[in-house]
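Think of the structure tokens as a kind of shorthand, similar to the way a musician reads notation: each symbol stands for something richer, in this case the local conformation of the backbone. In the example below we present two proteins back to back. Begin with the first one, reading the sequence and then the tokens, and try to describe in your own words what changes along the chain.
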Amino acid sequence: MVIEKKIRSWHLLQTLLQLLLVTFSLIYSLFIHANGTAIFKTFVLIILISLQFSVLNKNVNSKLIQCNYYFQAISITSTPIFFFTLVNDLLTKHTNMTITTFVLCLITIYKIFMFIPMGELTMGKVQNKWGRFCLLWFIYLIIEVESTYTIPTNPFLKACTNSAIIGNLSFAVTTWFVMKKWGFVTPNFKLSSKISKIILCILIIFIVIDCLFNGFNGADSWNGIFTNWNFRIATNNNLLYLTLSALAAGIGEEWMMRFCMLSFLLKLLQNSSKQILEAIFLDGLIFGLIHLFNTPFQPLSATLLQVIQAMAAGILFSALYLYTGTIISNIAYHFLYDLAGMITSGSILMLSPTIFDWQLSIFIVLIYLGLALFLVTGKRKKVVEYNLKFQGLNKKVFLNS
């Protein structure tokens, strides 16, 4: 109760501050710098922020209140993009570069934690399981897009915002509290005590080889698959941005897919005799399909290849998470894999694949699927079941009828 009281006070102060600054911006637009579009946006923003006080209502039995939780979760995560844009405009117009950079730096850090009250007071109180599922995806996409608004000052702040690292950290911090409110156990940061040291060494070697192959193998035919290597970094200009982008993907995608989504799927499939296999394959399928969002930014053939590779990689990542029992292994693998590819290509997008690229991808997909099945079957399955037991996600046992 003490913690919830503090969370409510946090939300109250945060909302009051936003309302105060946006109201000041409205007055500024009306009397000093008249702008019809800005006035309209600011007026709508004031209404949305004012409605956010409604989550302080403790009446959780009302259906109207339940609907409000959905609305406010979306509203609270959507309005900051407009709010920060207003603050950014005011700072750049009325302060010097040093003050602007300092304030924006503080705001950028604060953004990592600012949605904790929303998670506790709105998302955490949503009761419908499918509503939770859909809301989680919606919030994830909002925070991803919102975190990339432009900051026209410090290069490091630009890299932080453009790479979406802040948004992914914010999502991880927020859902840490939300998933606990929904009854899920937060992910472990230590290796499972049951993991085989031999298999762990094999996994480390495989991950290193896979990351090096993804980034530095320049083979364009089967003849050069073992001999054609290029360890040259494509660009130094965007190195910070590419590194943060790879880290953002590693944190955000693994936290969303392996902690949040896989936990949901395992919970939904607790009555299934093939719970583990079905969960990791569905998780991989979803992970692959979300890469369709890259279609507007790269060739369609590249996106289709990426979807297929991501499906297989998602299955492997899920199996790796369940076997090792720690989210850190997944974040590190995902980060290193993406980083190796990005720093050698100089881009976060793919080019049109060749026939050899398709052939090689099919070969890699088969390796991923084979390793994934190895990790969740045989003696390794007992390790997975042991890890799931402590997360409350192990398969329910029923007596034979």
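Once you have a description of the first chain, move to the second and do the same.
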Amino acid sequence: MRLRSLRRRLPSRVRMTTVFAAAVALTASLTSAVPSSAGTSAPAAERVAARSAERGGPGQPEAHDVVLAVHGGAGTALDPDHTSPTEERAYRAGLTDALRAGQRVLRRGGDSVAAVEAAVRVLEDNELFNAGKGAVFTADAGHELDASIMRGSDQAAGAVAGVRSVRNPISAARLVMDRTRHVLLAGEGADDFAARAGLPTVTQDYYWTQRRWDQLMAAKEKERGARDGRGGDEGAGAKGADSPKGTVGAVALDGRRHLAAATSTGGMTNKMPGRVGDSPLIGAGTYAKDGTVAASATGHGEVFIRGAATATIAHLMEYSRLGVAQAAHQVLIKQLPQLGGDGGVIALDGKGTFDAPHSSPGMLYGYLTRDGRIITKIFPSESPANE
């Protein structure tokens, strides 16, 4: 088939750089699977966009001309057979609301840092996601939250870890970046700093939700079963729970071509008090550098820390001249599983090239293109694990 003929057959939104890429895109369009329930829950324009969105092959970007992307955690993709239309609408709406919040910032000329902060705040206020209001419980039935943010133009960064009374940890992380000479504040000091700065504070019962409590009880039962020789992984959480990988994050590219990334989490269900994962650690859960990538990770935090996940993606792009999709695939699919964990990342370069590789069974995420299209993916058939 001649290239000109191939172009006529392909959807207009498919971007092609080579004949090979075009053939890959055509194959993806023929095999793309979108659950039938999507048609009953998402707004019409988004349903059409979701159906037309195609996932690239290994090392191939998923989308181009992306200005903002968010994720709601790897390993948390929903089972379409056990997800009601109401639940589907709620998850898609949560991701869409976050994208719209960031979009409003970018439309009025705001920078990428403000856009990712706005997007993550929306996810922190939504109890469906393991961050802020929806944070999971620690082993002592408390809540300890982590967050970080990074600006690509000068690689300034801020983070908080183990906060217990900040309503929006991502805003506390932003203040650490903007108002202190430090990068990371933890525990009581971080809580006090946020309160003195005027951020809204809450008591621990603000974070309480029945669903997270049930997950803690199931995790403790599983832990007891492991101790009694009845099977199970100690501290791993309930079957089907999103505890090991529940995180939210955002990446953005503004009108001045500056990148930014942000990540926030409630951690792992039944985690030891004081445990800190990758989300507040720059270079592990969050990284941004103009000219390379903005990346926010979600997965087994300890593995992402040991593998310096997001910084490694940037270094592969800078020093090995890999594209964003190639670099993210190398780290998420080839390297981190060898360290014993899985997860995913949303990665965006300075040209708007986007990819979301993940080795976990699924990942909740969505993205916004320059022309205003929104794509959300919540089912494994929409975002199958990379191999």
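Compare your description with these statements about the second chain. Residues 21 and 75 are 29 Å apart (CA to CA).
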